[in-house]
Amino acid sequence: MSDILFKDLNKEQIECLKQTEGVIRVMAGAGTGKTRALTYRFAYLLSSLGIAPRAILALTFTNRAAGEMKERIASLCGNNIACNIMTFHGYCAHFLKLYGSRVNFESNFAIIDRNDSKEILDNIYSYLSVNGRDITQRQMLDFIALQKSGLDYISYLKDKSALEIRQMADGLDDLKLKIYYYYLSAQRQSISLDFDDLINFTVFILKSDAALASDISRALEYIMVDEFQDVDGSQYELLKILCHYHNNLFVVGDPDQSIYAFRGSDPKIMLTMQTDFASLQTLYLLNNYRTQSLILDAAYALIAHNASDLRKKLKACRKKTDIKELVTTHESFIKALNHDTDDDRQVLDTLSLNAIAKDELKAADKGDIKDKKTILACVKNDRQEALYISHVIKSILKEQGDVSIGVLCRAHMQIRELERAFIENKIAYKVSSTVRYTDRKEIRDIIAYLRLMLNGNDDTAFVRVINSPRRGFGKSRMQRLRELSQKHNMSLFNTLRALAQMQLECAADDNRLITKAVGAFILASYKCSDLLSLSPIQALDTLLSVFDYEKKLRDSGDVDRLESLSLLRQMAIAFAKGAQERVNIADFLSSLMLSSDKTVQCSTELMTVHNAKGLEFDYVFIAGVNEGLFPSRKALSAEQVQEERRLFYVAMTRARRQLFLVQPGGFFANSERRRASRFIGDIGQDLLQKIGLDISIDDNMQKPASSQGCAFEPGDKVFSDVLGAGVIENINDKDCEYVIFFERLGRSRTLSFMAPLKKLEEP
């Protein structure tokens, strides 16, 4: 079997298979076949070493990656092998179902996502009369994540009641802390865990129960992790516990592709593993099979500005790109656009008759060329950027036929203008976004219904479903129900049920809460008391029927939402068929909340760079290569700029044949003039084929004094159009800041490296 596996691998990948023992770190650059190496290593352990499948655990970050690995292993080893390949969150959810009771935590917990968290905050803000302008939900969610970075909060969720937590919150003066504890109270009430909780609870239990940790660690003889550069501190702590007994940990990743700092991932973990594992072995995968050499050279020139002692240059091993696989730069199109001042669309139509599908000689006569270098196209504004990209795409589709094209943006706001141009030019395209299947309204409604039927204490689920469909339960009724709920220390749903059965002491007019529609809702809920005894599809059909949810959609004629429900049914059936043991609707619900949609390829895809991670295209366009956009103006510290550079590197290395960087001039919405991204300077002029307008980008084409863009030294005299003349007193490389004494102000000011400053020459 070994020979069969080895024949599909190169020497570096084979070495990854043979090194089975110890802690091994594989530094695998973009397009080097890291997932193949990990998958084949799993198969090698199974088939060549005869390791029992249950003794091997492979962890990934997406269900898509886990699914692809399972399919590959099935093709190598057969379909009848039950492999432990799952996401970190999937593993922890399974663990907590089995062992949560060890710390007196219920096993019937619900899993909530970011949208659920926002709904909880909506309810808290309403109850506490918090103005969202004072504390935004994003700020509050970040604060909650920070508070949960330790494990102390877990004692509240497992040992205290929702009422006890809420009473403690009421005694606090700090509004953020008050909201935080109300959030924990809501979680305790609904017995729900968010994604951070899944990891933290698992680590807490393993640290609290040495015997269990030892048993789990003994059982897992080999642990492998894909995309290791994306781990956060809690996930790393979990891995150290799991691999403690056998000390067999195999991790694959690329710190240069770590782009999820906003989720807590830290590339330093992979770079400094030797501090935790003294016997660490480091292997490299350096053969890039995706990207043609000149694009790879440009990408390396960029990322080299992020210092790393462990980085090695990748070798392009893709078959040589033929000139016929490239399209002309279409520089003449950009110039022609600027002869027209009124109607860009007319110019586009005219040029489409004259420029598209010209042979290489005629294109060269017009000043257009075919170049394997990365193309930097400079256009007048973002409208011309969209027209240029759509024009070149039409040429690609006409000349090259069945190919893949990726148009990548740093921010969602860029997509609108590009869509407009695609529609005008009749280019079929797909916008790939972060909106998951489970984010659709009808699916979130059904999930909330299921959560409420499985746990009547889930106030967040109740608030969502009581008016979906509408039942006339407005704000005043909800407020009164909350008052009764607090008075009797019951959940909203159970309070309403008790009120309907006349089991509560209340005012006479409280009966107004039980309208005809609300009464029907309560009666229907009793028909769902036994969902856990049914199969997932039976439970789902029962719920849709008794609450008339599907009937209401049919009556409204909403075909799209009906199709969503049909897909949900199919998923429930497939989940039960694929399970190795009997499963119920609670199991399906957990699986659904942990799922991520598969990416469906379309000829032309428009997406943010974050969404492009893991994908590849024959032709790639990176739009909006401007300072303040890419890198983002929010990137002020050295670490943030380095993350932006990694993100740009990820974008560049999605390309197989040809890469276009498009840099519009003009102004941003705040009237700030667009400048070229500093990343253009990082790459360097020699590795770029610059075409188009002579927009003012020369300053950025010069290499900055440091990787963070520092252009001055202490003592330099500089001039600011706003603050006047000044002297550089100090430079903070870490935070990318200057301290400058300004003569006009008579004091110092702290400016970022991005500030528009000119150096004053000595007289």
TrEMBL record:
EC number, as in UniProt: 5.6.2.4
An MF annotation (GO) of this entry: ATP hydrolysis activity
Sequence positions that bind ATP: 28-35
Keywords: ATP-binding, DNA-binding, Helicase, Hydrolase, Isomerase, Nucleotide-binding
Reactions catalysed, as given in the entry: Couples ATP hydrolysis with the unwinding of duplex DNA by translocating in the 3'-5' direction; ATP + H2O = ADP + phosphate + H(+)
GO CC term, one of those recorded: cytosol
PROSITE patterns in the record: UVRD_HELICASE_ATP_BIND, UVRD_HELICASE_CTER
Domain UvrD-like helicase C-terminal residues, every copy: 293-614
Keyword Hydrolase: yes
UvrD-like helicase ATP-binding domain ranges (all copies): 7-292
Protein name according to UniProt: DNA 3'-5' helicase
Organismal lineage: Bacteria, Pseudomonadati, Pseudomonadota, Gammaproteobacteria, Aeromonadales
